[in-house]
Amino acid sequence: MKPARILLAALGVVVAGAVAFSAYALLTVGDGRETGAPQPAAAGAPANLTDPVARGEYLARAADCIACHTVPGGQAFAGGVAFKTPFGTLYSTNITADKATGIGDWSDEDFVRALHAGVRKDGKPLYPAFPYTSYTALSRDDILAIKAYLFSLPPAHAPARANALGFPYNQRWALSFWNVLFLKKARFEPVEGKSAAWNRGAYLATALGHCEECHTPRNALFAVKRSQALSGEVLQGWKAYNITADKTYGIGGWTDRQLADYLSTGHAAGRGTASGPMGEVVQNSLQYLTPEDIGALVAYLRAVEPRQGAAGSELNEQPPLALASTADAPGAEELARGGLGQHLFQGACAGCHLWNGQGRQSAEAALLGTQAVNDPAAYNLTQVILHGTTLQTAHGQTSMPSFGRAYTDTEVAALGNFVLTHFGGKQAGLTAEEVAKRRAQ
Amino acid sequence: MNTRPDLLPGEGPDNPSRRQALKTGGLVVAFLWLGGGAKVLGRAGQPGRIEAGDPAFAPNAYIRVGAGGAVHLVMPSIEMGQGAYTGQATLLAEEMDLGLDQIVVEHAPANRRLYANPLVGEQATGGSTTIRYCWTTLRQAGAAARSLLVAAAAARWKVEPAQCTVTRGVIRHEASGRSAGYGEVAAAAARLPVPERVVEKDPGAFALIGKPLRRVDTAGKVDGSLPFGIDIRVPGMKVATVRACPTIGGKLLAVDDARARQVPGFVAIVKIDNAVAAIGEHFWAAKQALAALDIRWDHGPHASFSTEQLFKELADASRNGTPILAREVGNVDGVKGKAVEATYELPLLAHTTMEPLNTVVHVRPDGCEIWTGTQVPARAVDVAAKVTGLKPETIVVHNQYMGGGFGRRLFEDSIEQAVAFARQVDYPLKVVWTREEDLAQDRYRPAYHDRIAATLDAEGRPVAWRDRITSASVLAKFAPGAMGKNGLDSDAVEGAAELPYEVPNLKVEWVRHDLPEGLHPGWWRGVGPAHNVFVVEGFVDELAHAAGKDPVAYRRDLLQKNPRALGVLDLAASKAGWGAGTLPPRVGRGVALATPFGSYLCVIVEVEVSPQGGIALRRAVAAVDCGVVVNPNTVEAQIQGGLIFGWTAALYNGITIRNGAVEQSNFNDYRMMRINETPPIEVHIVDSKEVPGGIGETGTVMAFPSLINALFAATGVRLRKYPIDRSALVQGADALKAVVTEAFDEAATAVAKGAA
Amino acid sequence: MLILNINGERKSVDVPDDMPLLWVLRDVIGLTGTKFGCGIAQCGACTVHLDGLAVRSCVLPVSAVGDKAITTIEGVGASEVGRKVQQAWLAIEVVQCGYCQSGQIMSATALLAGTPAPSDAQIDAAMSGNICRCGTYVRIREAIKQAATGRKLVPQTIPNEAAAASSGTDAPGQAFLSVRQEDAA
Ligand code: FES
Ligand code: FES
Fold it and tell me: Is A417's Cβ below 8 Å from some Cβ in B?
């Protein structure tokens, strides 16, 4: 499941805001209706896709609609995915063309307005778990292509599940204030002086792919901090890494090839494997992009201003303990030191990951040089140990089983600490108590 | 025949004196009922089906001597790792004066009449009975064969048989210097009448029995040449893997195989009522295809069932259900003294044999061949006949070596399912379950809710003892006719009804509470005793504590009239150094004593518990009196392996159910002990002339109480459930705030391994 | 069509790229000594060597093997270390059901090939990925030490063949190794 965007805390704050401001807001938001601007060159599906439905399918994938609107094993786009937040649970809606329960009777205008302004057919605001703050930059043509694709699929009768939000978060009207503050309704504008590839990459990354929704830190009102764009953020216990061009904390040290591989296959030699939510993005979305579009994304990401980010993961590519190990055994000194984490690694982990972190049966199991083993807070490491991960692409499937059920919080913490120290050269700080918290996330 | 009368078959299962004489639990009683009274002793038996050529000499169902001298021994019990083939072959070879290296062992064909276990009246291996029954039958069979072969040689030489000796299958007449191999006289021996009476060897003359001889089945297991059931390949064979409805009692509604058809190597799908199998050219194709099927299930009536609900129901049944009396001694009512009581809960358990379940089946219009590893070959024929409608005599079971049984292969469900799939195709079909399917569709050891109480006299001795056990009944499912007349499942109370200790007033009852239809209870290594001895020995430890006595001294006091039990207690205590020296903090020793399957055991375990509740086993000492030992090597191995099997369950295992489906899927969440968790395990065997007791399951029985008693000694926390809740062993909340990097049993491992 | 180098022999196989080596060995080539226990790299039953390193063949796509030398339990006895390990396994009578033992022996051989005199800690590091449901771990540890040192460290299982010379059997000294398998076509 894709992580819920925890924007809802903002609601509580905003509800407590000034009534005058509220009135002002209600008057100014309007209904978001607007007519289209010309389709920019950076927008659209690849030119060789001529069939309108195929174009819509490509764009829907690039926008990763399916992730949030499909329950595992359920009919595509029928909604019902639960987004658990500290404020309650939201459910995604049915966006198939079913007239009774989906969007079958939405007009083009209704659909465009939803993506551009975060407003549903009846005029009520949508929760920003739906990333309209990014989709607002989409071209009208692209939105309608996506609609044409959705309407080409079999409709699913799937009534919306009622959200389970407590007061005041269940007050939809309050979202209007948030939108006044944080929704910049504007279409994508190409930047002059940047290459066509960069502009295409920018459109893919910002409007369609909505990378910022996960990778950019948020302020107290849970709006993205543009000044720290893409420098990393933690959502529901998973860390969306710093993907700025910073060499130490971001992806500045990655080669173009590594970036392209990672985006298109979920794995880059020496850089690790996408897991959790990012694994799903690759699986549902990025693996379908053309090599040109992947190249455009790489061009865009390369040029993102380097930022250190908060509590960054400093990549240590020479961790002494891993380097002192062979494939089959840790160095003698480390081995003699023992420890619970090492003990657990011997049993359940070493067979795939190897003591020197090189992976064995599958390159995907290589740990050396990955963000996961360099994040001192061990966010994704903990999640992967607890829940496992699966990555299914055209290149096959790789997966790691979950260990959360049979291993105690103490064991998960010890294992996490061992991995951080051994493969990332990091001071390890996980406690059983912290793992218990993350388990509950 | 000098067969012990209480082991004679043929009296019928309902003969109460016979059942009494066996003094054994549900599994054995079940088979008694199933098999009726088969006459199986050598003299009565005919040779079983011979695949290639006729042996020159086949005096009974177990022995075939070829004209060239090759001796083939047909093994009535099956080999699943417990060493049965070696034990059986040793008994035959001993009486025939052969070396173990001189014989070829064979899997027995399915044939109740010839190969039924006379202790249980069925062709079945389980309940730790193999050596117990073979001790007589196979030595008789071997001695009879030897006497015929010697008689034939003596007749040829015109000398007295008594003047002939046999060494390694060569008959000699010293005075005349003549000699002949068994093969040379086999044909002549075959013409002689089988003697009415044979005398088994005097134990003093044993050349093989009691020696740690090398197993007969291991050479092919270290070079990959020996096939297990899963390795069988038959020409034209395809491979299938199965998904049965994951929810209890659910059914298959519909399957769409459109995506599966894209899988390279995909052949077909076949369906039965509650399951679908994908068939491929190889397992990988089958597995990929199975994953690509879009399956719709009718989740059935138990789709909201959970283990929480099960334990609630068990607790409720324990208070409000109808108890069935298992045993009553004296009168427990009105006994005055200090009252102690406790409630124990035990989880559902899976077997997870290392070799996943598999069956190769070829159904033809005129017959059916089955290749599989099963603990119940004759029952495999029964189910195949039932499913195919073929006559049983047209069904051949080729039994195979098993990668573990532990009771799982006493159930023929996977064979029945494989036949049901295979009858839909015209080629041989190999059905292999994934590990996930193995965990989802096991015959689980039932869950138990036991309330136990005692009244202590002024010295702290129990003067009244009550035990009320509540559980589902394996026996009622497996062999309903074997239930006691009052509805008692003797397996459910085995190890609880008969205590090794002296207790003047005792009442043991059982309340039956069935699992939902479709969730099948099963036999699991250690059967009844593995459940009850945990509760009884945990509770005896509680009583010792309540009485302020040392756990070993307390037991010693209660065992004064049970010398064999006392013997193992004292032996284990002295070898473990019980009471000598002081242990470091959070290190403790636990003792457990029991007399399962006709053997006497005491196990002492030493553990260390980290501040965060991590458990390290430092050392284990077992003392075993199992009567005459056929092969000490096997005894040691079975105790070591049995303990690890039990500790694994105690530490980590427990099947849980949510929304009607089992939650565990593979070894990542159904965790196994590994070599780096294994302590040195010393096994001390008592020299004994008593009849052999069972051994294969005894280690498992002892594992649970010895470990929890040790954890109590180390931490003061009394655990009455497993898998052990390690969070209950945490040394205060602060320990969980600490960064966990502590050395795991570093010192302990060093000490223990030094001792090894 | 892939060409694999297995136990010193070249075998060509026509299988999907993502097919794990385990199933190529067992179901296509017919080398069934390598076992299936879990399919998720948790039990070690499927362990083989790739250029001498122990790998879990159940999760190794055959296309990733390339021209690396594959050694299975059927071929491990060709090396000095492998042979010693097998002998120690027999001498100490490690095996119970035997199903995990192919994998155990492959892991142990890889360990000893790289670390001729392993400590207990090194044995744990190399062998803890192999599960034995029968619980043969105590003897596995002993057997590895014996294979390493060549010294008898624990009481040895007495070989079955007695000292007496003449036997009068068809296949003296060998017969006990085999069970008739004419059923297993
Ligand atoms: S089958 Fe490969 S590790 Fe278990
Ligand atoms: S010997 Fe049976 S699983 Fe290891």
Answer: yes
Within-domain flag for B738:
no
In-domain check, residue B756: no
Kindly state whether residues B151 and B281 are assigned to the same domain.
no
Report whether residue B405 contacts ligand 2, using a CB cutoff of 6 Å: no
Q: What is the mean pLDDT of chain A?
A: 87
CA of B220 relative to ligand 2 center, distance in Å? 14
CA gap B646, B325 in Å, rounded: 28
Confidence of residue B43 (pLDDT cuts 50, 70, 90): very low
> How many domains, chain B?
3
Question: Average pLDDT of B403-423?
Answer: 96
Domain boundary (B432, B466, B483) is at: B432
Residue-wise pLDDT tens digits, B473-484: 999 988 888 899
Domain boundary among B200, B222, B244: B222
Q: Which residues of C touch B265 (CB under 8 A)?
A: 16
Tell whether B276 and B176 lie within a shared domain: no
Determine the topology of domain C77-149 in CATH.
Answer: DNA polymerase; domain 1 (1.10.150)
To test the contact with chain B by mutation, choose from C70, C97, C142, C174 the residue with the greatest count of B C-beta atoms within 10 A, namely C97
C-alpha Rg value of chain C to the nearest Å? 18
Confidence of residue C148 (pLDDT cuts 50, 70, 90): very high
pLDDT of amino acid B642: 97
Closest chain C residue to the Cα of B640, Cα to Cα: C135
Is B734 near chain A, with CB under 8 Å? no
Domain ranges (residues) in chain C: 2-76, 77-149
List residues near ligand 1 (CB under 6 A). Answer: C 36-39, 41-46, 56, 58
Dihedral angle sign, alpha carbons of residues B16, B21, B25, B26: negative
Flag whether pLDDT at C30 surpasses 60: yes
Instruction: State pLDDT tens for residues B100-128.
Output: 999 899 999 998 888 887 766 778 887 77
- The response to whether residue C123 sits with its C-beta less than 6 Å from ligand 2 reads no
CA quadruple C73, C77, C78, C81: dihedral positive or negative?
A: positive
Q: Mark whether B158 and B104 lie in a shared domain.
A: yes
B404 lines ligand 2 (CB under 6 A): yes
C134 lines ligand 2 (CB under 6 A): yes
Residues 6+ apart with CB under 8 A from B299: B245, B247, B250, B660
Which CATH number applies to C2-76: 3.40.50.10540, 3.10.20.30, 3.40.228.10, 3.40.50.300?
A: 3.10.20.30
DSSP string of B525-573, one letter each residue? TTHHHHHHHHHHHHHHHHHHHHTT--HHHHHHHHTTT-HHHHHHHHHHH
The whole-model pTM stands at 0.90
Residues C143 and B107: their CA atoms lie apart, in Å, by 29
List CB contacts (< 8 A) between B80 and chain C. 97
Residue B643 lies in a domain: yes
Q: Which two tokens stand for residue B14?
A: 């309902």
* Tally of CB atoms within 10 A around A432: 23
pLDDT for residue C175 is more than 90: no
Q: Are residues B123 and B259 in the same domain?
A: no
Please give the residue range of the domain that contains residue B684: 307-348+444-729
pLDDT-based confidence at A337, cuts 50/70/90? confident
Domain membership flag for residue B715: yes
Amino acid identity for residue B247 in this structure = T
ipTM for this model: 0.90
